Amino acid sequence: MALFAALTAALGLLPPVEVALVPAPITAQTLGVMLAGAVLGSRRAGAALLLFVLLVVVGLPVLAGGRGGLGVLLGPSGGFILSWPVAAFVVGLLTERFWRRYTVLLGIAWNVVGGVLVVYLIGIPWMALVGDLGFDKALVGSLVYVPGDLTKAVIAAVVAVTVRRAYPLIEDRGA
């Protein structure tokens, strides 16, 4: 679990891309969320990302751009970050449920459901409220994240299938 918290922090070394329309940058760190869920399963992935969020809370500069601290979580991008443990748990839960039939295509689907939709369902309303944008503007502005998030969903699914073959960490709870 600590390894995936560290992996998510390492993905924060890639510089964030600031977006003109919304006050939350594009980062690579949601790839860590998807990978944790797809490789570790629900409980361990949720715990790994909860650990990561706790590192942010105590002020460690583990977010993209060297950010950290409670102030970041209370800002416009805080909802996205707070969603990561839930998102990793959902990706892991779906992966566990369909472990026997897990393929790259299913992995992409579960990464999109957990690692994109869950993150957006929590992050966009938070950004609209805290960033004083209005929900419509936050929703439309967030469309800029979609191409990168879909790319991360594909990468995480390919990695998960490869890891599953070499060293399966998830127990079979499949349907």
TrEMBL record:
Keywords: Cell membrane, Membrane, Transmembrane, Transmembrane helix, Transport. Pfam families: BioY (PF02632). Coiled coil: none annotated. It comes from the Bacteria. It is found in: Cell membrane. The chain crosses the membrane at residues 43-63, 70-95, 107-129. Belongs to the BioY family. This is Biotin transporter. It comes from Saccharothrix lopnurensis.
